Every structure is written in structure tokens, then in C-alpha cells.
Amino acid sequence: MKVNLPWYFPNSAMNEEIIKKLPAEVAMRTPSALFNLASGIYPHNSFREVLNIETIVKNINSIEISKKLSNLFNHYGSDKASSHNYHLLYGSIFNYLDGCSSLLEIGLGSNNLSIASNMGVNGKPGASLCAFKDFLPNSNICGADIDREIKVKDCEVFYIDQTKPESFEAIENNSRNKYDLIIDDGLHSPDANLFTLDFALRNISPKGFIVIEDIPSRCLPIWMTVQYLLINLPYHGQLFQTKSAFVFVCSKNHFILN
Questions:
Q1: Nearest in space to 85 (alpha carbons), one of 245, 236, 215, 218
Q2: Which residues contact 231 (CB under 8 A, 6 or more apart)?
Q3: How far apart are CA 150 and CA 64, in angstroms?
Q4: How much is the pTM?
Q5: pLDDT of residue 116
Q6: What is the pLDDT of residue 1?
Q7: Residues 131-149, buried b or exposed e (16+ Cβ, 10 A)?
Q8: Is the CB of residue 94 less than 8 Å from the CB of residue 100?
Q9: Which residues are CB-contacts of 91 (< 8 A; sequence separation ≥ 6)?
Q10: How far apart are the C-alpha atoms of 187 and 138, rounded to whole Å?
Q11: Domains assigned to the chain
């Protein structure tokens, strides 16, 4: 019987000792190999360096927005400010948008320990969505999660499995408009992130922003490759280093990427 092996198994004869280590090594090396290929195809001056989120463009208004968001995140029990200082990023984004009419956050944080990427029993599902709703009371604030039990007051919450692209259809079919901000704070695996980015590129408004949160350093080659993939598109990608991880921001706007 033919066995369907994962893609990272070399199409070569291997003894048991080699099988124990080589496929894992292939999986680990492949993102870096793709990045090397992309950087060789495109001019090096097209690549954007990783920036520190502390250096993001600020003015008096964005600073005030960041402070308000930090207080709201902390009030509702979200770690977006305390652990990651994402309030600096969102302060600049909301300042630029000057009115965010529609927001979608994918990944609301589950207490269900059987669900991958849960927050444990003491986490507060939907905390950041509550903060965004408080900050934007007249806007369409939506969420999505694999945990069907999560409900957030005054917010529409969709079911989604980020590893299955077809599950995004429910959001697309029920969305009245494009979103000014789409946030991925879900499974935090490269495949889930990339499926979400594909969905987001189709459903973001012309002035909008896509934010992929909590990227570990081991995944940077993947996102550096994505930056190259976007070169010939009207979108721009930028990686920022935060307190405890990295974040990828994608938009048609240059202000936050320079």
C-alpha cells in the first residue's frame, strides 16, 4: 500500500536512523531556503529591515490613542499592551485611519484546554475585542474563533478554523463591507497565518491594515519571503520587533512602513 508522506520527507532511500532526524531538518531549513531564493531573484534594496515597534511614527494624537488603548487592554484583561506593546502600533494605525468603521480580530482566546493556543482557565476570551469596541463604540467590531462557545457583547463572532481556508467563507458571505483593520491573534502557526493573510488581502479596505501578531523569531524567514512576494503587488509588508515577539503589518499605505 502506498503511503502518503509529508512534503518534508526527501524522496530518497533512508534508513531508520536517518528518518529520525533528516525530515525534521528539511522542515527547519526550507523557510530559510525559500527566503534565500526570493532574495536572489529580487533586488536586495527591495527588502525592508525589521524595525523596532518603539520607533514607529508618532504624533501627539497617536500617543494619546496608544495610552487609551493600553488602559483599555489592561482593563479588560488583554496582554496586547502589557506583554507585547501592540498599543503603540494600533495607536498609529487608528490615528492614520481617522475613523475605523469596521474591524475583525481572528483569535479571541479560549479557556478550553483541548483547543490549541488556548489561554488557560484564567484567560479572558474576547478581552481585546471588548477593548476595541469600547474604543470604537460606533464601529462594526467583529471576531472569529475556533471555540464556538465564545460570545462578546455587542460584537458579531464567527466560527473559524484557520487551518481550513473554506471556513473563512462564512465571514466573507456575512460581511457587509471591507474591514479597515484585520488582526490575526489566533493559532500562531505559519500555515494558519498564511491562510488568514490570503483571506485578509481580499477583504481589507483600500485604506486598511492587516496585522499578524505574535510571530516567533524562528518564523522570520517565512515572513521575509512574504515581503518579497508582495513586491509586485500594491501592498507593502513590514516586520516589527515587539517586547516578546514580532508582528507583520501589511497595507497599501506607506506611512507606517517607512
A1: 245
A2: 42, 46
A3: 31
A4: 0.92
A5: 81
A6: 45
A7: bbbbbbeebbbbbbbbbee
A8: yes
A9: 58, 62, 63, 64, 65, 66, 67, 69
A10: 29
A11: 100-251 (3.40.50.150)
Backbone angles phi, psi at 18, to 5 degrees: -70, -40
Which H or E run contains 140? strand 140-145
Tens digits of residue pLDDT in 153-185: 999 999 999 999 999 998 988 767 899 999 999
pLDDT at 208: 95
Residue 152 DSSP symbol: B
Burial class (CB in 10 A: 0-12, 13-18, 19+), 12: exposed
Residues of the chain predicted below pLDDT 70:
1-3, 43-47, 175, 254-258
Return the CA Rg of the chain.
19
State which amino acid sits at residue 89.
Answer: L
How far CA 209 is from CA of 28, 74, 146, 184, 237, in Å, comes to 30, 23, 23, 11, 10
Residues 6+ apart with CB under 8 A from 89: 53, 56, 211, 240, 242, 247, 249, 256
For position 38, what pLDDT does the model report?
A: 87
Please, where are the H alpha helices in the chain?
16-41, 60-76, 86-97, 127-135, 169-174, 190-203, 220-229
Beta bridge partners of 141: 103
Cα 51 to Cα 209: distance, rounded to the nearest angstrom: 17
Phi, psi (rounded to 5 degrees) for 233: -110, 165
Which residue do the cell numbers 526550507 mark? 30
